[in-house]
């Protein structure tokens, strides 16, 4: 059973940066499909960024392209989401998720979820 724990959220002013971390245990994380999702109050959870190790470039939702970067740590059991030029509309709970196989979209492929970390961007 894979367990995911996010960290790194917090309060930041617009234009600032944060780096979220997702630490995995209980599985061969470096072979998983990994994604970051976010959920704002009153809204559904949406895909933000994802990567299929060894299967091409990472994917990003259009609203974060050029500002967010998903990457893997040297220990290979950690995934990061570097968030730059943050905007108030980026405010949400951010979730790390992982899956074993890709089923056409990251949203359809996630099997394991973290508990989430709050990101608040003030204007």
Your description of this structure?
- The chain starts with a strand and ends with a strand.
- The protein is built from 1 helix and 11 strands.
- Strand 5 (about 45-50) and strand 6 form a beta hairpin.
- With about 120 residues, the chain is mainly beta.
- The chain has one helix at about 105-110; strands spanning about 5, 10-15, 20-25, 35-40, 45-50, 60, 70, 80-85, 90-100, 110-115, 115-120.
- Strands 2, 4, 5, 6, 9, 10 and 11 form a 7-stranded mixed β-sheet that branches. It has a 4-stranded antiparallel β-sheet with strand order 1-3-8-7, with no helix packed on it.
- The mean pLDDT is about 95.
| Helical proportion, percent range | under 10%
Secondary structural class: mainly beta
Main pleated sheet = 7 strands, mixed
Query: How much strand content do the residues show?
Result: over 45%
Radius of gyration: 13 Å
Beta-strand segment tally:
11
Note the overall shape: globular
Poorly predicted runs? none
Number of helices: 1
SSE ordering: EEEEEEEEEHEE
Note the gap between the termini: 40 Å
């Amino acid at each position: 059973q894979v367990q995911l724990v996010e960290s790194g959220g917090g309060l930041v002013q617009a234009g600032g940066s944060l780096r979220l971390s997702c630490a995995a245990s209980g599985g061969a994380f470096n072979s998983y499909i990994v994604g970051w999702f976010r959920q704002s109050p009153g809204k559904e959870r949406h895909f933000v960024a994802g990567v299929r190790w060894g299967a091409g470039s990472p994917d990003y939702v259009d609203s974060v392209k050029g500002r967010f970067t998903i990457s893997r740590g040297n220990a290979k059991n950690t995934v990061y989401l570097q968030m730059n030029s943050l905007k108030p509309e980026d405010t949400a709970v951010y979730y790390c998720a992982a899956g074993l196989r890709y089923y056409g979209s990251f949203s359809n492929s996630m099997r394991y979820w973290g508990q989430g970390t709050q990101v608040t961007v003030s204007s």
